[in-house]
Amino acid sequence: MEQQSGSLSKVERFLDRLSGLCIFFASIALVVLISTFGWLVFGRYVLNSTPTWVEQLALLLICYIAYLGAAAGVHEQSHLGVTLFRDMLGETVSNLLKLFNDVILAVFGLVMMLACMELFSFGWATLLPMLDIPESFRTLSALLCGGLVFVFAGTRAVLRFIYLLHGQSYSGKEVY
Asked: N or C: which end of the chain has fewer CB within 10 A?
């Protein structure tokens, strides 16, 4: 288990870095969003010329902020959850329910990713108004989120299962 533990910690560190990248890019998107709205206000009230592309860019950036943040939230286990009954059932049942929850999340992420792949390929020929980039760039955020949720929750489910096989509790980030 010690050799496995070293490999598992490398996987966990990689996923921590990947989650950090999600937060980093979502933060950059938020800064760009705020800056472009500053430009919108300045253009509208000072220059008397409203930049029309800001609204479309804002919609695109909000998609990336929300979806990348949601994926990182799955990794950090910081989403809302009601754990009262699960925690009352004892450690073994609680660990099995956590494993079940991780599997359900991973399946959801996989289905989301596969559905968004179809949308991504469908929207490639359509351009976003004012930005003149493919509509697929908006769908890409959901596709990435689905893939990241699948990876984060699926890996946690595998790790939790390995620990359960060895009669141990998974000691990852236990927030939810």
From this structure: N
